[in-house]
Amino acid sequence: MAQASNASVAPPTDDELGRAGLGLAVEGQVARITISRPERRNAMTGRTWTTLAEIGRTLPADVRVVVVSGEGDIFSAGIDLNMFTPEGVDGERSIVAGLADGSADPADLEGYIAELQEGFLWLRRPDLVTIAAVRGHAIGAGFQLALSCDLRILADDAKFCMKEPALGLVPDLTGTKPLVDIVGVHRAVEICLTARRVGAEEARDLGLAELVVPAEELPGAVDDAVAAVLATDRDAATATKALLRQAPDNTLEEQIAAERRAQVGRLTALAAGMAAGQG
Ligand code: ACO
Question: What biological-process terms (Gene Ontology) are attached (predicted)?
């Protein structure tokens, strides 16, 4: 699982962010990540995801909310399709190099995919609330990135598409579990195996969007959500997200035991705080 933030490690430089097709702006408790390769419709490469993982590892400890969006009127056209050519993307490893002639080691490739998945995994961290602000297409890896966030706030022009099966691939960037958790196995099969576009209104009806707003209102809606999240107690929010995240995999007995443990932790902290205040 993703590591906790470590403010002592240097975050990616502007040059590294630029080469990864990413923008990053951290202001107080809010980090805003922008997928920024407009000339490629914000298509992402391996470096995008290893750099995303680096952003997660180096986020300042103050940050509570992370907003992920795309530059312009599209979230992301998914993986840069040049990643699947033998030449690959300039300066980056090709995913398919050596597979045709058997010279590539499958275990090595699985290890590389695990590195890429780290770019998506950390968005589930309980100490953060992560928000995908989606305009236009979120295709393949773009859809999976949005699925990695806690909340999806969509413009009314947003469109999700799990394109991978249409390209002979499986979705492997951590998106299958949240998709199934949200819409169920059968709807997930239908969405993936038809690779159809799911529009904003349908996404909201399916639970894939918490909110849909006119495109021009998206920034304001995201700011409202950020403000609402920041108004809650940080430690309680962290403990609550941890509880909610484990709920789908727990039995009722396991979950209520986890609730009790978490509450004792909260009450202990609150009581200690009150005692310190009286002292
Ligand atoms: N990888 C590399 N380049 C891309 C990608 C991509 N995924 N998507 C778009 N581009 C490039 C196009 O090649 C084009 O380049 P050019 O100007 O040099 O010809 C430029 O971005 C603009 O693309 P258009 O197709 O002209 O833009 P349009 O707005 O008409 O369509 C759309 C946008 C719908 C996103 C379309 O580009 C598209 O379907 N892209 C491919 C989506 C895809 O299959 N992604 C992979 C999914 S699987 C996965 O993510 C694991």
Answer: fatty acid beta-oxidation
Q: Which amino acid, one-letter code, is at 230?
A: L
Global pTM?
Answer: 0.96
Tens of pLDDT, residue by residue over 93-110, are 888 888 889 899 999 999
Pocket perturbation via mutation, ligand 1, pick of 39, 40, 41 by most ligand atoms within 8 A of CB: 41
Query: In this structure, which topology does domain 14-231 adopt according to CATH?
Result: 2-enoyl-CoA Hydratase; Chain A, domain 1 (3.90.226)
Closest Cα to atom 32 of ligand 1: 77
Nearest Cα residue to atom 3 of ligand 1? 40
ipTM above 0.90, yes or no: yes
Name residue, tokens 């700011």. 223
In the sheet that holds 159-161, the strands lie side by side as 137-139, 159-161, 197-199
Q: Which CATH class is domain 236-278?
A: mainly alpha
